[in-house]
Amino acid sequence: MPLRELTDISSLPALKPEFAMRRPAGLPDPLGHPPRILLLYGSLRERSFSRLAVEEAARLLTLFGAEIRIFDPSTLPLPDQVKGDDHPAVRELREHALWSEGQVWCSPERHGQITGVMKAQIDHLPLEMGGMRPTQGRTLAVMQVSGGSQSFNAVNTLRLLGRWMRMFTIPNQSSVAMAYKEFDEAGRMKPSSYYDRIVDVMEELVRFTVLLRPHAETLVDRYSERKQKQIVADPTTDMSAIAIAHQHRRSA
Questions:
Q1: Which of 148, 149, 150, 156 is most buried (CB neighbours < 10 A)?
Q2: pLDDT tens-digit series, residues 72-93
Q3: Alpha-carbon distance values, 66 to 4, 39, 109, 112, 124 (Å)
Q4: Strand 168-169 to strand 36-41: parallel, antiparallel, or no bridges (unpaired)?
Q5: Residues near 210 by Cβ (< 8 Å), separated by ≥ 6?
Q6: Sign (positive/negative) of CA torsion 35, 28, 201, 109?
Q7: Cα-flanking dihedrals φ and ψ of residue 36, to 5°?
Q8: At 177, is the secondary structure helix, strand, or coil?
Q9: Neighbour-count burial of 168, counting CB atoms closer than 10 A to its CB (0-12 exposed, 13-18 middle, 19+ buried)
Q10: SS3 assignment, position 61
Q11: 3-class secondary structure, 140
């Protein structure tokens, strides 16, 4: 099953809980269920630092009230390797993406870029799938781990991909330099400014997800798609028309 089980989900040894907000959104939430976050990582190594960083992020998201799923890409075929993408791991990845309201993408930086494992997962997520869109309108947090000095090549590429997939990428991001120094033998992240940044990013992701998810369909509503589907605009629900209605009333 391409989901990873998260161990020690409530163990946060690097966190100072007195400074953490258990429910960081602080916003009205008309949907009433926990934010649904899918996390993807970009390495198949046994000791994968991108996976370890994602697991730390997932524990924090759980603390902040989110429901999380971590996708395991170890059985995922290459794009176009299987005819019609008819593969259990591909189908499951897409189902989890449709379930999600926000996502976390974390890639190692390899040769100055994201890994093929990371790109393959994103390439398996179509912009449209049977009238449904597995990424459009969802929030996104981007992270990277590096073996050397701090770099932002991978997160910059992930931002570009998030924009292409019509996602709302949050302003904050995480880049962990010399990642092999930042995790103990048990795979847990040590206290550091790098860990604190991941806490910041996950807090921000929860806030943006709670803020945007009730309006996701409205925010990505497009003229070209309405035209293609022959959907006539309704002035009673058109946000632009509502916003300028008072101007028309004053000029009448």
A1: 156
A2: 999 999 999 999 999 999 999 9
A3: 16, 12, 27, 32, 25
A4: unpaired
A5: 25, 27, 29, 35
A6: positive
A7: -100, 115
A8: coil
A9: buried
A10: helix
A11: strand
